[in-house]
Recover the amino acids of this structure.
């Protein structure tokens, strides 16, 4: 087996991947805070993690992937200040936080399924792991890493050596870097100490989500409160994957605060390294700024679909940039991706319905890209090479479908469509006629032809490339 090279944020270098257990990968990805519809920037992160998941599966690893849902404790600032994001939306939408979580998890899962993201093995919600979080805090208290004030239980960063090993930040210069937003608690020892548990007191005295705890505050009964966002991941990693895992991944902005704090808590409590490899995906940009809901520069998958784009075109667009590179989003670029993907699909469609042998030379070339820090953008160039090669159509098909296990473009569906019998001439004729009618803005005729296609057993979808149909 060839070496897998992975860029590790810890060392800022590409390193050879060595699993904790041969043939097994334990993999944690910091999932979404489920208080709104995730935008396509968030989805880029989910696709990046999916590509790593799929790569290891392709290499025959047994992958234990965990992607959590944060449904409590993530405040409007990542640095522990402000309101709980879930509660803010709950008030706005007149629902309770559980209903908000349910609503937005459903939308996220529909979206991730549309862009063909594999299901992780575990998808825990933070609120299902409160007991584990309390246990972890108790260990940290017992070991002297945590202390209580009347407002919160904090992690004392001065007790943890190498607190900045991941971020390489100078805390003196950048105090706000690591969990320091809440200066309202005068009893906090260091400004960068971060909360493990918020008591239902002070600015959180009306918190809607809270649990009893064994911790003491003079301001509440039964230690009532809720966990800090950073702690949640540490507790879920421990429960679902163990004290040390192979790969921990998340968005690049998590290096300086969230992941730095996860390392401090987990390593202080467990006495062992949290993750051997830290991977960070870069952001999706709009006009050179991070796609962001609060700045009004974000689109959801639903909005992109309404403009006539297919979810898999978005996936193909994401595949064109390496996970460690920023990617600029424009509808023009997405249009290019959609064209590119339909071009590939129509060529595959023409390859026929027989699947031959996977070609080893192309597979080898593909692996060389893949094993070099998941260089998927480069690997896409193999598609035209295969199509132009002198392999038989059957072998071309077999090879492309094999590699698509990692790309996840669902090219098998195109081939299956072919297998079920291509579109007959009559259908093609109606589609042509309908596209003509739409071009001439003759919507009455276009609707008539849609009904005709549906009567003949085809579902009709409009896209910027024109009418596309699939068997009902
Ligand atoms: P949030 O809901 O803000 O906690 O973000 C959820 C996830 O989406 C985090 O892992 C972020 O790193 C990621 N994310 C947010 N904005 C972007 C973006 N513009 N591009 C890529 N990932 C993003
Ligand atoms: Zn996390």
């Amino acid at each position: 087996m060839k070496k897998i090279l992975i860029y590790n944020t810890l060392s800022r270098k590409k390193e050879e991947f060595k699993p904790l257990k041969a043939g097994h990968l334990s993999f944690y990805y910091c999932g979404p805070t489920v208080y709104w519809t995730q935008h396509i920037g968030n989805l880029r992160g989910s696709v990046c993690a999916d590509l790593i998941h799929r790569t290891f599966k392709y290499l025959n690893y047994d992958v234990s992937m965990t992607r959590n849902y944060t449904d409590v404790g993530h405040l409007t600032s990542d640095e522990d200040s402000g309101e709980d994001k879930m509660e803010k939306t709950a008030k706005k939408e007149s629902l309770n936080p559980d209903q908000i979580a349910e609503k937005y998890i459903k939308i996220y899962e529909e979206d991730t399924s549309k862009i063909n993201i594999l299901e992780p093995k575990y998808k825990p919600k933070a609120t299902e792991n409160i007991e584990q979080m309390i246990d972890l805090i108790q260990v940290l208290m017992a070991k002297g890493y945590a202390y209580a004030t009347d407002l919160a239980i904090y992690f004392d960063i001065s007790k943890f050596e190498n607190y900045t090993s991941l971020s390489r930040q100078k805390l003196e210069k950048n105090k706000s870097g690591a969990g320091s937003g809440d200066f309202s608690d005068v009893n906090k020892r260091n400004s960068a100490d971060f909360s493990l548990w918020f008591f239902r007191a002070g600015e959180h005295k009306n918190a809607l989500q809270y649990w009893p705890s064994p911790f003491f505050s003079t301001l509440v009964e039964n230690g009532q409160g809720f966990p800090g966002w950073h702690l949640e991941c540490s507790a879920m990693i421990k429960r679902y994957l163990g004290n040390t895992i192979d790969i921990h991944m998340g968005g690049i902005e998590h290096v300086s605060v969230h992941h730095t704090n996860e390392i401090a808590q987990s390593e202080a409590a467990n006495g062992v390294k949290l993750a051997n490899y830290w991977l960070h995906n870069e952001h999706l940009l709009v006009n050179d700024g991070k796609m962001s809901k609060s700045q009004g520069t974000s689109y959801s998958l639903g909005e992109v679909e309404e403009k006539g784009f297919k979810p898999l075109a978005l996936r193909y667009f994401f595949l064109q940039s390496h996970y460690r590179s920023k990617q600029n989003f424009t509808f023009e670029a997405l249009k290019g991706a959609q064209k590119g993907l339909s071009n590939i699909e129509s060529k595959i469609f023409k390859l026929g319905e027989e699947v031959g042998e996977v070609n080893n030379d192309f597979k080898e070339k593909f692996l060389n890209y893949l094993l070099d820090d998941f260089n998927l953008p480069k690997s896409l160039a193999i598609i035209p090479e295969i199509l132009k090669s002198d392999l038989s159509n059957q072998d071309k098909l077999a090879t492309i479908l094999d590699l698509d296990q990692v790309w996840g473009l669902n090219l098998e569906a195109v081939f299956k469509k072919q297998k079920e019998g291509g579109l007959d001439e009559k259908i093609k004729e109606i589609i042509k006629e309908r596209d003509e009618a739409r071009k001439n803005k003759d919507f009455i005729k276009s609707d008539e032809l849609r009904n005709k296609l549906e009567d003949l057993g085809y579902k009709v979808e409009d896209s910027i490339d024109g009418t596309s149909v699939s068997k009902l």
